[in-house]
UniProtKB/TrEMBL annotation:
Any single GO CC term annotated in Swiss-Prot or TrEMBL for this entry: chromosome
InterPro entries named among the record's database cross-references: INTS8, TPR_INTS8
Organism of provenance: Takifugu bimaculatus
Domain INTS8 TPR repeats: 505-993
GO biological process assignments: snRNA 3'-end processing
Name by which UniProt lists this protein: INTS8 TPR repeats domain-containing protein
Amino acid sequence: MSAEAADRVAAVASSRPSTPLQTSWFEFLLDGSLLEKHLKKANPDPTPVQLIVQFLEQASKPSVNEQNQVQPPVDNRRNRTLKLLALEVAAHMKWDLDVLEKGLTIPVLNMLLNELLCVSKVPPGVKHVDLDLSTLPPTTAMAVVIYNRWAIRTIVLSSFPEKQTKPGPHQMNVINILQQEKEMTENILAVLKEQANDSISVLEGALQLKKDFYVHTLRTLDLLAADTAANGETESSTAGLRISADELHCQVHYDVGGIFFHQGCTDQTAYQKARDHFRQTKDLLKKLDSTVHVHLDEKRLAGYWNACKALTEDCDSDSQTTAYDQINSLIRAHNYQAVIEAFIRDNVTHSLPNHFRQSVLREFLYKVQQGESGLDEVCHKLCICNAIRDSLEGEVLSVRFQQLLLKPNKWMVDFILEVCTLSLEKEHLSETLRRKIGNFIKTLCENLEELPLLFVVSSHKLFIELLKEEERKVLMEQMRKKSATINLSAKPLPSFFDIPASATVNIGQLEQQLILLLEPRKIRQTLIELHGLAERSYWKVNNKWEVPPDYINVILSIKDNLTKDLVYILMAKGLHCISIKDFAHARQLFTACLKLVTEFSPKLRQVMLNEMLLLEVRAHESMTAEGSKERPPPDLVSRVRGYLEMRIHDVPLRQVVGEECVTFMLNWRENDYLTLQVPPSLVMNNPYIKLGQLLASTCKELPGPKESRRTAKELWEVVVQICSVSIQHKRNSDGRLSLIKHRESSMGILQRSKFITFIKKIREPLVLTTLISLLVRLHSIVRDDIVNEVTAEHLSIWPSSIPNLQAVDVEAVAVTVTELVSYALTLNSNNQSWLITQADIYFVTNQYSAALNIYLQAGAVCSDFFTKVVPSDVYSDQVLKRMIKCCSMMNCHTQVAVLCQFLREVDYMTAFKALQEQNSHDAMDSFYDYIWDVTILEYLTHIHHKRGETEKRQIAMKAIGQTELNTSNPEEVLQLAAQKRKKRFLQAMAKLYF
């Protein structure tokens, strides 16, 4: 480098401000006066908390002996001086635990305060709760108070969730240090929690002392270091920094109140104790002129105070009640209207914060969820009040309010407008607030779909006062567009009645009347009047009038137009009434139609008799579906039999009549009739009757020996054909594609959709079980997956193979069995066989959460919600293994381990492998109480010890230490312990997955 360059570098270097070098920890050892000078600096570097860490870190460094073995820290003068320096820094900070807790970790602060106890001559080996503070030297008593204050504060602070700190680059030594620190923290917390009641007792004892307290200062600690304590100065009543009794009591009341509040979630009476301590804190704060030695968050104290009053229903609170107190007292008094009025007033005063208003709404919603009636309207009104408050503050409207606007009604809109009006009743209201409410009104208009409600808003004074003329025009145009889409059949506008009456108007009015009428006599009278005004086909007036295509030609062939219209309309209206289950009007309409057609058409008479039979069948089935146990009258059964035996030619027949007659007979267990007395010709011509006969025969033969189930094979072939493709592409030897039609059975191919419709009209459990069994068997064959087979009852009666497997539509079989089982469970959701089949279907299709839910339901229904033992035929080893796999696939590995005990032979390999998994999505150690197998519990303690998970290891140890699990117990005691845990575990699982 040239001389000029060197000069330039020197000049630049000299122009930069120099950073003072950081004082090293060992310099304080060399110069006794340096620490006090350093701490008096405006911004000392290192900071006081950094110094404490450095001093204690150096004082606790392990030593290495001549044999290269690691030894505990040596108790020499150097280390004692370093610890004393750390205490002197804390004394300079006046033992402010707020600052110390923020800057130091729990292990470091624990070491510091233990050293304070040591130098303050607290008797070693004696529990603090056994000490009499009034007889101890002032600084000794104060050290005990400080330590126990920190103990209960640390318990409270550790309960708050914390974001995990990331160690940065992946370095093993850093990770090891963090892991060690975590283990130390867990161990310290475990001890503090165990001694929490003792710490509270110590502090409550301190509150009984009325004398002033003294705490160590730099001077008193220096005297200790100089070994001048022999003169007794450091133990005298005036040594150290004086803290008045009121100041200490104020701080202790606050800390003890915090621990009691923390304990309130498990002990409701603790909230009352917390309230009393916080009241004392507030009283002492008012009494103190200055609070030099009191370090507490007054906002947090106010929050604690309000929470305690709400939780303990404190009525003798301050004379100056806050808005919080008023709302809480109104809720306790069930004066919900006053709560709503208070929220409306608060929209003007803004004295309640939004989060409090939202929490009140959530409380009411919770009460609704718990089953309290009559609170829905209160929730809606509070939600509206909060939405308007949000608008006033420029916040986004809540999702709950927007959901409310999806189903608006008149009272809701009126209430919204009323609250908006009351929220603007304030002197000197700013234009900004008026504009915000205007935007809210605009949003309301844009969200309302019903025209009458829009008219309510648009006619309100707020709409005119708060919205600009251009905005009103746009909204009115939107309303006109909405009104144009209104159904033309709606009530006409009043101006319509000003039009002079004419023949056209009369016809229109009569046609509208014809559409609405249900009385046959009035329908006939209206048609006569219409035919008198104009001769036309009035059966076309309403395109919703429909009669079955099978009958349309017969009806339209009637020559007299009036009779044609009347027959068509009576039948169409009757069919509509059946579809909406208005069976009384349907009977009136069909009876009138039968009486009419009997006069001129035997064919139509039989048609109406068939339709009236279908009406009665559906009416009775509807009563049964609603819970009626009454059997059908003999007359109805006789009429159904008559229809099934009917041989009248040239009468149009609807297949649905035969279909529902067959399902009616199956549902009422008329199997003998279906198998023995139905004419063969009818069986051959109607596939539904053929299906019914085969089902009835199979159900009859189920109790018999296997070789007698000949009809089961025939039913199998029919269902296989239904689930097969009718045409298949096949490649010839020359490579060209050809079409091969499958041979049809004697009943013809029934479409799968019609087969499903037929099945969904059956209610008889045995018939449904038979069909489920058949389809499950077919499903297993076409899937060809031995490991993941669906189970059902009576599987052994069906064939084990299909000759033409390629022709079967696999997807059709899967869909059919799924639909059938789902339908069956809608009829009886407690049928354990159907539930297991449903769960198996979910399992083989990899829907593990749904499968586990249904397996648990199956166990619950046959054990009175697990209060009894689940039968082994329900929770077989196969079912249990599938439940284990479900839990494993959902990463609920602790649940896997518990379920492994349920097997006849405990599956230790699966259980151990599951417990090795660290990424478990269940509650882990909360399930340890359900484990009764000592081997698994021992493995758990080993795993947690190996990982350094102290708390979890202690939970496992507690579980294994229960006397009822002692392997020396009689077998009956061990079995009872296992059954108790099985029951509790299955109930806990049910609560998780139901």
